[in-house]
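ok so for the tutorial part 2 we go from a plain amino acid sequence to predicted structure tokens. step 1 is just haveing the sequence, like this:
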Amino acid sequence: MMLLSVQWLGALYTFFALLICIIVICGCKLARIGFRTIGKKLPPEAPPKEDKPPEPVYYLVERKKKRVKAEYSDPKRIQFK
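step 2 — the prediction. this is what the tokens look like for a chain of 81 residues:
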């Protein structure tokens, strides 16, 4: 039993060491990004634009066309031979 507890303790220390390394690396990257942006200035805010009344919207609608009535001639007689 003593051997298993030592192994678990080593695994726990390894996990904590890995966690600390990840935190330090992410912190360094974020700090580098932060130092890069310190010297940059934000662009000045644009003055508010004057509100123009909205232009009217015109919908183009085609008128329905009347269907021309087809005029049929009288049926022809078909003769089979």
